[in-house]
Design goal:
The chain is an alpha+beta fold and about 120 residues long. It is built from 3 helices and 3 strands. It has a domain at about 25-100. The model is unreliable at about 10-20 (pLDDT under 50).
Length: about 120
């Protein structure tokens, strides 16, 4: 986790579920949605929390930005290596295994208290 000492207030979107996107996506931990007045309303603009680059075209491109795949988007220069690895891993797995992985981690959480005793 990289914590910047300076807290810059970037005109973040108002709290609340305005657009109702898929907020479970890990990409939201590393970027914020931005609204661009006069832009194409149906596009999601994402601002990278690390390099402040605004990515047009939604979460998919932001993932590629963070994962340094260089697919249709410039790689992030500021993102920590472990985050890059997380997204490289995420993209290589694809979305197929996402639900499975979540179910497995839920099971592990339930088992942990028993093991501690
Ligand atoms: Zn970036």
């Amino acid at each position: 986790m990289v914590r910047s000492s300076k807290r810059s207030c970037i005109g973040a979107a108002p709290s609340g579920s305005s657009s109702g996107g898929n907020r479970k996506d890990p990409v939201w931990k590393h970027s914020v949605e931005v609204e661009v007045p006069g832009g194409k309303k149906h596009y999601v603009y994402l601002e990278c929390k690390y390099c402040k680059k605004v990515i047009k075209g939604g979460v998919k491109r932001m993932k590629h930005h963070l994962a340094h795949t260089k697919k249709n988007v410039a790689p992030c220069k500021e993102v920590p290596e472990d985050v890059t690895n997380e997204f490289v891993d995420y993209l290589s797995k694809g979305t197929k295994n996402k639900h499975l992985a979540q179910a497995q981690s839920d099971e592990r959480l339930i088992q942990v208290p028993i093991l501690i005793m």
